[in-house]
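Good morning,

Both structures are done.
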Amino acid sequence: MAEESKTDTDGLKTTKLMYEVADSSSNWAVCGKSSGMVSMPMTANATHKVQIEVMPLFAGHLPFPKIKVLKYLPHTAAVAIQPDPGKKK
């Protein structure tokens, strides 16, 4: 069984997702963790709540910071996906 697809005690398959606050405009200060990982059930309409505290660095109307959500691939999976430089197409 792949590392990113494990079975919980409830019998549901899960996948790991990584989230990260991606505030390239530097309008916000993140209070606490700016990234982390969650195990999502692999079922239709599955949800997971994550609370991130941010504090505005400037007065006025600021757009909320973007949150990137990525599927977590363990280091061993990344090595297996890379093409073999010795093989010709």
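Second structure follows.
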Amino acid sequence: MLSFLLHLSNILATVLVGLIVTFVILVVVLRITLEPVKGVCKCKKELQGKTVLITGGNSGIGLETAKDLARRGARVIIASRNVEKSKDAVKYIRETTGNNKVEYRYLNLGNNYSVVKFAEDFKKEFDRLDILVNNAGCGVIKRKTTEDGIDLLMQVNYVGPFLLTHLLLDKLIASKPSRIVNVSSLAHRLTKLNFEDLRKCESISNLIRYSKTKLCDVLWTRALAKKLPHGVTANVLHPGFVKTNIFEFLHPYLKKVLFLVIDLLFKTPVEGAQTIIHLCVSPNLDNATGGYYMDCKRIEPSKIAQNDDLAEELWNKTLELIKQ
């Protein structure tokens, strides 16, 4: 009996080791296949005299982008609705980069009035805007309608950034050469677009709601690029699957499991910020516009996201929505 149990324990130990080895190999293969850290911005361009506005620049990939551009000498304005976290971010960036031209301004993308007020104040206070990074966004959140009658997820991830950019275009044009960088997601490939989704996003899963907002970001960038004068570019990107506070909505135990997987498979905020930084500074992209990027390279988005007629219709529908 004892020998049998010893034999059984040896078998179980062998199986366990085999499973662990298989899991490690699978993790490595998935890491290489899905999210290789191959897109690193190697450009050393300085940004002295340039003004950069980054929404959601107080954490995650936004914070890492703000820190990198500040290190290059830019005047960096972080726009966010979280006052305390933004103040901490400003202090941290100043201390780590030695650049004291890092500031914070309040902005709530979930409220059109806040966006309009921010844009009005920005244009009065700052004489130029060289780079606008629409980074702020939220993950899969429960359905809620904003004061403007728009689904909160759609408002924060798409309508708010659209409105902000629309209101700051004159400043960007006056400052050209200038750049607009929009953060989207590979998740845009998971869905199609119904224009009713701009307001309600009903009868669909939370993940698909999120995907629709990111599809809108890709389409909007495509339409915007065609309307900008020479010297102003607009590009959109997938930063990678990154461990950031976008997952704060999850149950603590589920979040721990997810973060364990992300730690093994996906990118850190520093890695996730690389494509944003690349689109902000690379001299090779001076005249590149309307593109979708991942790992610092231009790739093709979903077929739906390449539909120019759909992009133009979305543009017009959104203008109606924000009453511009």
